Amino acid sequence: MIEINRILIQLNTAIELANSDLPPKQNLALILLDNLFEVQLYKRIEHLLLLDRTTWYGGNRLYSKDSRNKVMRHYDHLLKVAKDAQIITEDELQLLKYVHNVRNDIYITRVQTLIRSFK
User: Fold this and answer.
1) Which of 8, 11, 74, 102 has a CA-to-CA distance to 43 between 20 and 30 Å?
2) Are 54 and 64 spatial neighbours (Cβ–Cβ below 8 Å)?
3) What is the DSSP string of 16-70?
4) Domain range list for the chain
């Protein structure tokens, strides 16, 4: 219940910020939404990997140790595994990649602005 409450608060905050006329608030909305999607996707994939076990009668795992490690460190690999597992479609994958890249651009722009302000 606490997790659902956190998700709803984050989503509500993102919606409020997205409805603002101020670009910095709209940027924060995008960051919050991207984070929400990413965290939920990680949890879904983590659950998928927990169920992917090898037993004496079960054969090989679907996801290698290397693939499991990449999922937790590389967003592109997380999206690929989610698509391969039919959790998201190709269109959703492209949309999530686009939003994540925009979010990264916001971070980079903000950091560069902060660095310039200290000079």
Assistant:
1) 102
2) no
3) HHHTSS-HHHHHHHHHHHHHHHHHHHHHHHHHHHHH----TTT---SS-HHHHHH
4) 2-117
Phi and psi based region of residue 59 (left: phi greater than 0; alpha: psi -120 to 50; beta: remaining): left
CB 76 within 8 A of CB 97: yes
And the tokens for 114?
């902060």
Place of tokens 């090898």: 54
Q: Tell me the two tokens of residue 23.
A: 């670009």
Tokens of residue 98, six digits: 């686009």
15-55 pLDDT, tens per residue? 999 999 998 899 889 999 999 999 999 999 999 888 877 66
